[in-house]
Amino acid sequence: MNQKTKIEFYKNRTLSERFSAAADFIRQNWKVLLKNTMYIGIPLVLLQGFFFRNYMQEIMTNINSPHDMNINWGSYTGMVFPSLLLSLFLFSVIGAILRQCVNGSLTEQTGWSDLKGNIFSFMGKMFVQYLIISVAFVLLIVLMGLLTYVASLMGRLPSTIVIALIFLAFFALLIIVSPMLLLTPYPVVFENASAWQGLKKGFKVGFKHWGSTFLTVFLGTLLIVVIYYILSMPYFVYIIFNMGESGFVGYILSVFSSLVLFILYPVFFVFMSFQYTSIVEKEEGISLQDKIREFDNL
């Protein structure tokens, strides 16, 4: 049994060092990641590719024939639902692998039987976080609607300006909270926190280190988006020149586009894990506490 080299997570790293550490982790453990994600992940990718193709074709058809615009919410829901399932599944598997790595028990033979307990635990907690965040956003949208209605009754500003201002406020709020939201799964992974505790700690450390977290999210997202669009360019070219048409080639290219995201999701998740552990180390000195405990146990 080949023991993996233990990577030190709780270490105060610079941004470039976090990129480097994430790349090292992926390079060392890509076989374990692939082995434990492909059997459930690939069917979800095939399903996502099917609905994504239909959704993109409808968009291109509506662009080509704006007078006959038709929105098929079934295709949109069918695209979003497998995407959410895929991200939840991938995050849970990667979280379980990260936990094994932190515990020093990750090997090349690490399989589903070693990870399933943590996988299902993480899936349950992250699903609860999804629900809490979704409810919060729904309530926020309802509040925006009420504000728009009240402002229109007052009549001091044109309704279009009111709607634009409220939309801009919502967009700004989304930018502000996104870096904090993206940290909420990691207390669950590294500290076995509950869903609610993960939300609280993610917001706490994310707020205190908002600038570095925002920069990390921005650069990580930019890198992934650029890679995704470069590799998915054949599909986008295909749908542009085959508006509204459905075919086997379009499905294959759509599946390939979804497969690119399937590969890129873990990269972003691992990269953000080093952002979280770096700022927690800066705040709490976890590595020093571990060394003190090791010394006390001698």
Folded structure, characterized:
The chain has helices at 15-64, 73-102, 112-154, 159-181, 185-191, 195-208, 210-231, 233-241, 248-284, 286-296. Helix 1 runs antiparallel to helix 2, helix 2 (73-102) packs across helix 3 (112-154) and helix 8 (233-241) runs antiparallel to helix 9. It is mainly α.
Shape: globular
- What is the mean pLDDT? 83
- Strand percent estimate: under 5%
In total, the number of strands is 0
> Helix amount, in percent?
over 70%
Q: What is Rg?
A: 22 Å
Oligomer status: single chain
Q: What is the helix/strand order? A: HHHHHHHHHH
Helix- and strand-based class?
A: mainly alpha
Main beta sheet:
none
SS element count, helices:
10
List the domain count as a whole number: 1
What separation lies between the terminal Cα atoms?
Answer: 28 Å
Low-confidence stretches: 291-296
Tags for this entry?
single chain; 298 residues; mainly alpha; 0% strand
Topology:
Layout: H1 15-64, H2 73-102, H3 112-154, H4 159-181, H5 185-191, H6 195-208, H7 210-231, H8 233-241, H9 248-284, H10 286-296
Helix pairs in contact: 1-2, 1-9, 2-3, 2-9, 3-4, 3-6, 4-6, 4-7, 5-6, 7-9, 8-9
What is shown here, in short?
The chain has 298 residues and is mostly helical.
